[in-house]
Please model this.
Amino acid sequence: MLEHVSDPYKIIGETSKYLKKNACIYITEVLNHNFIYFPQSAEIDFYWNQFNQLQIDMKGHPDIGLLLGNILYNAGFNNIKKWTRTFFYDKSEPEKRLMAMNYCHTLLKSASDHLIAKKYITAEQFESTLTGGFTGQSKAMRDSMSQYRRDLE
Model:
């Protein structure tokens, strides 16, 4: 959730006050520019860029995961361990790929009203993303899943 706040340094600094000495803290954060998919969709790319720009304009940080180690270090934490977790699902894992696409679809829909109200996108662009972007992606996922099930039989 740190990607939504204007001062993540303050949040983490305050958090450290409530932890026991030598306690562990686990934080999972975003790296939005790590969102890569295939086949590409101009509609999804445009929407994703506007989604991230809205976050920046609201004083958030869509790539806060890049700063997390420094934020923790500056707040006095030590023994900091960082991992980058990527998800790569292709035809070899159709269930996981469909799940990931559905998650992304839900995530992007969650900001649509705000993006439209703030004029980052139009309602038509949102519909185009659903029909030209994710619907095409979802259809490809469903087709892939159907083929996978046929291959198992």
